[in-house]
């Protein structure tokens, strides 16, 4: 796992009732017993940690949050977009 | 004059408190008996330009240790401090009551836990983050922490209460209104059991500034009924009772601590800060009529006694108005002199003081009362508590806006 993935895994572990060490990129978030309130806190920590904003609505099933890997990809693309917009500004 | 209301008898089977002078009932009551003051130097956050530098704060409160056994409520330790206090006090009260969980009929139970202001400390932190730290978002639990019903909801979840669950809000009468309403629900047959009281935790920079601007805080201490009194001292905490119908308590062989036999509520409907004699008098008389007892039967009155110039003299006048010649013989004290003014939680904590006074036949003192103030000429149990037969007690709560609520407790039904 790269730096972004490791950081995200650490945030996930922080919010799990029973943290586990076998989290991989293809692990589904539902397998980690993460509920909607946990997800809100995870998103908050990710936003704070990476200086990005993740648009999502807790009322909708979000494709980006299916697996650990999909969260990592989404965060990476938001970091890249932030870099582009900063460069063009 | 009100008629004695009819309905089921309601008893108290559990007590719980969190206060600056004790975070369990035994510790709290030992402090009350010893006349211990909970007022100390203000701390825990940057004081900046504050001028009032004292408060009755609960220091070194280990919420994690006190809440770690909670099972149903998964996020109680992430809640606002006011919900921690409510949860800890409710836990003590439920354990004392010996109620078996899960409840046989959860829809026949109520959880009415009020708060004067809800999660103000969370509010300030969130706004500092947004407006000063320029953060893009508040913590995701901010809303759930702030809402004034979160203490009731947390406690309701943990103890599996499925009947009426909500908060009351009437400033310094919040707890007494919650306890009174719960009493009425049981009396009227809506539920058989209730967890009722209030919790408060608002001591932060913004709250201190707001109270300072109202010019009713003392820079020195909380000295109810004293000549030197110059304002109240903010406190914090929770006071919670377990109430049951007498039949319910008897059927399960519970230890009955007291009967909640009288409840009165009346509003001044006149002014936000200047109290009337009439409103508190009517509330006291209603509570006595509801209990079906005479003024001479009250052995101890736990006064609202905030140590402001207006309140103490007004309350003294109202007591004389209701109790007439018995006022002179009545043992009265303001325990706020020790635990400070916990705002909405006051009536809950003071209800516990009343019931302990009955159990122990001991009335707690008003400390700091070296010389009585002008017009404060009753027996306020100055400085040292007193051994005394205590069969019936009254607890007064009078709030900003003229919102008055009075409770009367009596001995367990024979």
What would you say this structure looks like, in words?
The complex is a heterodimer of chains A (89) and B (414). Chain A has a single domain (3-88), classed as ACP-like (Non-ribosomal Peptide Synthetase Peptidyl Carrier Protein, Chain A), CATH 1.10.1200.10. Chain A is 54% helix and 0% strand. Chain A has helices at residues 3-14, 36-50, 68-88. In chain A, α1 crosses α2 (36-50). The radius of gyration of chain B is 20 Å and the shape is globular. The longest helix of chain B is centred in the N-terminal third of the chain and has 17 residues, at 81-97. The model of chain B has no long low-confidence stretch (mean pLDDT 97). Chain B has helices at 25-34, 63-67, 81-97, 120-132, 142-146, 150-158, 174-187, 205-214, 246-251, 278-291, 309-323, 336-339, 346-360, and strands at residues 10-18, 40-41, 54-55, 109-114, 165-166, 193-200, 237-245, 258-267, 298-302, 331-333, 362-363, 386-387, 392-399, 403-410. Helices cover 33% and strands 18% of the residues of chain B. Chain B folds into two domains: 11-251, Thiolase/Chalcone synthase (Peroxisomal Thiolase, Chain A, domain 1); 261-410, Peroxisomal Thiolase, Chain A, domain 1 (3-Layer(aba) Sandwich). Chain A binds chain B through residues 17, 37, 40-41, 43-44, 47-48, 53, and chain B through 74-75, 135-137, 139-141.
What order do the SSEs of chain B take from the amino end to the carboxyl end, as H and E?
A: EHEEHHEHHHEHEHEHEHEHEHHEEEE
CATH class of the largest domain in chain B: Alpha Beta
Mean pLDDT of chain A: 86
For the terminal residues of chain B, how far apart are their CA atoms?
28 Å
* CATH homologous superfamily (4th level) name of the largest domain in chain B: Thiolase/Chalcone synthase
Going by CATH, the architecture of the largest domain in chain B would be: 3-Layer(aba) Sandwich
List keywords for this structure.
heterodimer, A: 89 residues, mainly alpha, Non-ribosomal Peptide Synthetase Peptidyl Carrier Protein, Chain A, 3 helices, globular, B: 414 residues, alpha/beta, Peroxisomal Thiolase, Chain A, domain 1, 2 domains, 10-stranded mixed sheet, two-stranded antiparallel ribbon, 13 helices, 14 strands
């Amino acid at each position: 796992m790269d730096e972004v993935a490791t950081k995200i895994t650490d945030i996930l572990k922080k919010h799990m009732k029973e943290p586990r060490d076998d989290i991989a990129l293809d692990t589904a978030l539902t397998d980690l017993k993460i509920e909607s309130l946990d997800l809100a806190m995870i998103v908050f920590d990710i936003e704070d940690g990476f200086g990005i904003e993740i648009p999502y609505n807790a009322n909708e099933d979000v494709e980006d949050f299916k697996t650990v890997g999909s969260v990592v990809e989404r965060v990476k693309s938001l970091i890249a977009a932030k870099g582009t917009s900063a460069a063009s500004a | 004059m009100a008629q004695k209301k009819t309905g089921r008898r309601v008893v108290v089977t559990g007590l719980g408190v969190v206060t600056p002078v004790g975070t369990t009932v035994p510790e709290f009551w030992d402090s009350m008996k010893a006349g211990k003051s909970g007022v100390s130097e203000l701390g825990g956050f940057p004081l900046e330009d504050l001028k009032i530098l004292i408060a009755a704060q609960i220091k070194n409160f280990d919420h994690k240790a006190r809440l770690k056994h909670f099972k149903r409520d998964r996020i109680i330790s992430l809640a606002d401090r006011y919900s921690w206090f409510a949860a800890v006090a409710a836990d003590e009260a439920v354990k004392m009551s010996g109620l078996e969980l899960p409840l046989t009929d959860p829809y026949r139970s109520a959880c009415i836990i009020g708060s004067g202001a809800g999660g103000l400390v969370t509010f300030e932190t969130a706004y500092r983050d947004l407006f000063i730290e320029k953060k893009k978002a508040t913590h995701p639990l901010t809303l759930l922490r702030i809402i004034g019903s979160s203490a009731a909801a947390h406690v309701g979840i943990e103890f599996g209460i499925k009947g009426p669950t909500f908060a009351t809000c009437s400033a310094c009468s919040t707890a007494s209104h919650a306890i009174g309403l719960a009493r009425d629900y049981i009396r009227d047959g809506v539920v058989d059991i209730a967890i009722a009281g209030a919790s408060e935790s608002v001591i932060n920079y913004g709250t201190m500034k707001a109270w300072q601007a109202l010019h009713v805080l003392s820079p020195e201490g909380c000295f109810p009924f004293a000549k030197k009194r110059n304002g109240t001292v903010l406190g914090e905490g929770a006071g919670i009772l377990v109430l049951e119908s007498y039949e319910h308590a008897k059927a399960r062989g519970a230890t009955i601590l007291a009967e909640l036999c009288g409840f009165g509520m009346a509003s001044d409907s006149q002014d936000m800060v200047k109290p009337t004699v009439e409103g508190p008098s009517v509330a006291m008389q209603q509570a006595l009529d509801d209990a079906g007892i005479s003024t001479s039967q009250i052995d101890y009155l736990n006064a609202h006694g905030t140590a402001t110039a207006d309140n103490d003299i007004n309350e003294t006048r109202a007591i004389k108005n209701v109790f007439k010649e018995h006022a002179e013989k009545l043992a009265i004290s303001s325990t706020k002199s020790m635990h400070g003014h916990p705002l909405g939680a006051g009536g809950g904590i003071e209800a516990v003081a009343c019931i302990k006074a009955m159990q122990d036949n001991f009335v707690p003192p008003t400390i700091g009362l070296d010389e009585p103030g002008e017009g404060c000429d009753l027996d306020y149990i100055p400085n040292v508590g007193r051994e005394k037969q205590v069969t019936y007690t009254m607890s007064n709560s009078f709030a900003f806006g003229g919102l008055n609520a009075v409770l009367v407790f009596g001995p367990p039904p024979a």
